[in-house]
Amino acid sequence: MYDHVERGAHFQASSRIEGHRSSIHTIKLIFWV
Q1: FRET partner for 12 with CA separation of 20 to 30 A, picked from 6, 19, 23, 30?
Q2: What top-level branch of life does the organism fall under (predicted)?
Q3: What is the rounded distance in angstroms from the CA atom of residue 26 to the CA atom of residue 9?
Q4: Which letter does DSSP use for residue 1 in this model?
Q5: Where are the beta strands (DSSP E) in 1-33?
Q6: pLDDT tops 60 at residue 1
C-alpha cells in the first residue's frame, strides 16, 4: 500500500520535473526566435 503511494508520488514528481523542463525549453525557443 505505502509502496504504491510512494511510487505514485515519485512518478508525479518526476513528471512535474519533466514538464518544467519542457516548458523552459519552449520558453527558450520562443526567445531564440
Answers
A1: 30
A2: Eukaryota
A3: 26
A4: -
A5: none
A6: no
Three-state DSSP string of the chain: CHHHHHHHHHHHHHHHHHHHHHHHHHHHHHHHC
pLDDT digits (tens, 9 = 90+) for 11-30: 788 778 787 888 888 888 88
The residue assigned the cell 518526476 is 14
| Maximum Cα interatomic distance, the chain, rounded to a whole number of Å | 48
Note if the pTM is more than 0.85: no
Q: Quick one: cell of 1?
A: 500500500
